[in-house]
Predict the 3D structure of the following.
Amino acid sequence: MGKYILLKIKPGKREKWLTWCNELKTMYKNEALITLEEESLIQERCFIFGEGDNSYVVYKHLPEAGQIKKLANMNRELNRKHFEVFHECLEKVKGEMCVGYDFTRS
């Protein structure tokens, strides 16, 4: 099923986060895909919703069958940059998050 994480975008940081997401999708895409393999993931998704300073992010990590997500390789410059922007722009929402339902048809 994977793991979901809910985060709030810090005030004034929505545009910086959107810019970083766009850079990941374009100029860093190939390297980002390599990091998925290093972390035993087949998918990492970032959903952004809300407006302005009332914006949120939902992350989904889907590991390979029978695996759990491994820690990021912090020797990789892209991972260090991602953690830097992540912590500058996002904060965890307190409280427990659960999945109401998640259907997958095979």
